[in-house]
Amino acid sequence: MLTERETLPIARAINEGLRAAMAADEHVLLMGEDIGPLGGVFRVTDGLHREFGSARVLDTPLAESGIVGSAIGLAMRGYRPVIEIQFEGFIFPAFNQIVSQLAKITSRHDGKISMPIVIRVPYGGHIGAIEHHQESPEAYFAHTPGLRVVSPSNAHDAYWMIQQAIQSNDPVLFFEPKAKYWQKGEVDPAAPAADLHRTRIARPGTDCTVVGFGAMVTTLLQAAEVAQGEGTSLEVVDLRSLSPIDYEPLLASVRKTGRLVVAQEASANASLGSEIAAYVGEHAFYTMQAPVLRVSGYDVPFPPAKLEGLFLPDADRVLEAVDRTMNY
Hints:
This protein is of the alpha/beta class. The protein has helices spanning 10-24, 48-52, 64-76, 95-102, 105-108, 138-142, 155-167, 216-229, 247-257, 272-283, 308-311, 315-326, and strands at residues 6-9, 28-32, 57-59, 80-84, 118-123, 148-150, 172-177, 184-187, 200-203, 208-212, 234-238, 241-243, 260-267, 293-297.
């Protein structure tokens, strides 16, 4: 159990957050493919089966729809299941259970039945994997009323946000940037993170706002460092929550800088970046000095691993967009 401030990889921070949640509430259960003795393909649940036993850390069949359906039944009986989807591309066999059932049960029963289920989803690229292993499907779920959708970008947030998600009485899609699982950061168990759905200013700036979430925040911080050396001050905004979105810090930043670049790994068409651009354009139009620009994956299926560097946004593509908005 984490008892003092430590520097941990994000994967270990999530592991410690799960451990703390399970120790605090015996109704918290973990379910997923190979999450038991193996500890999951990314070892995020390593050691939890040994500590809490097979009644609370359950290896499941390779059947995502069955996993989610079982979790719904357990939630109805008072448990708080935490599901692991092994890779984001495997979530679609459970799509009907999630959007047609899980998202709607509470509303269908006039609020009398809660669905305290967390679905952990390792997502995103930069791991050199094959098809269905590097995608960013967050927009499907952020579009669905009844679901909360969040994504941490650093170890401290990962540790606290997984616990906050487990405490929620609503279903939470917890998107984990797997390319950053081993990126280290300081975790303080005595200093809780902000509210689960609070947007964070990751780096103050004055000339242009850049916003992203998950692994993209690291890319934005890298871009901001380069831009600083070239005389441009970027304010980096970490969205943290994708549904609901806490827009006020973002709007305040845009009203200050007058410019916005939205960055994501997902394709641009009908994406979360599209929604952010539309919302900011609607609510901060008269303070904008340039159109909102998007930096994203291209509108094609995710390519083979050897081409992922061409598909995924990097600091250079972010800086090119910054140059365009600054020169508008």
